[in-house]
Design a protein that fits this description.
single chain, Ubiquitin-like (UB roll), five-stranded mixed β-sheet, 25% strand, Sulfur_Carrier/Prot_Modifier, Mopterin_synth/thiamin_S_b
Amino acid sequence: MIIEVSVPMLLSDCTKGKTRFPLEAETLGEALDRLATDYPLLKRHLYTEQGKLRQHVLLFLNDDNIEWLERFDVPLQAGDKLRVLQAVSGG
């Protein structure tokens, strides 16, 4: 399946200057693995040294935050959208 991935402009230096791009994957887990493989600089922003998703990174599959998923073997459909967002805090 071809899905659309979007990242904030702040991370576009990790994705060869792209903020939106197609990605081929059958499951959400495969899409995340593919992102880490195709864009190794992005991997550092997504994952901790222990391989866990970073707490300040929000990932949405279509309109759903994937934070609550126990497993990422969710099948993807053509046209799904995976959005990478960074939580902002401060005062």
